[in-house]
Amino acid sequence: MAKAEKIARRRQPNRIQRYIRETIGELRKVNWPSRQEATSLTLIVLVVTFGMSLVLGLLDFIFSRLFALILG
User: Fold this and answer.
1) 21, 13 in Cβ contact below 8 A?
2) Are 33 and 41 within 8 A, CB to CB?
């Protein structure tokens, strides 16, 4: 049993090291956006999120008023 545990302990760091090496290799393959692209896309996401929150807030207000009128 002790021999199997030693082998398992030796393999553990190798797996972690291999995982880190492979992850770094994959991240190097990523086509990262430029700062300008990232800024413009972030702005688009913020505008759409704000717009959707307004629409959903308005719908929530309308439906709550309708239910209040119906249920008295």
Assistant:
1) no
2) yes
What tokens appear for 52 in the block? Answer: 């959707």
* pTM as predicted: 0.60
* C-beta of residue 44 within 8 angstroms of C-beta of residue 52: no
Domain residue spans of the chain? 1-30, 34-72
- Each of the 72 residues of the chain gets a pLDDT tens digit; together they read 566 666 666 666 788 899 999 999 999 999 999 999 999 999 999 999 999 999 999 999 999 999 999 998
Distance of CA 1 to the CA centre of its chain: 43
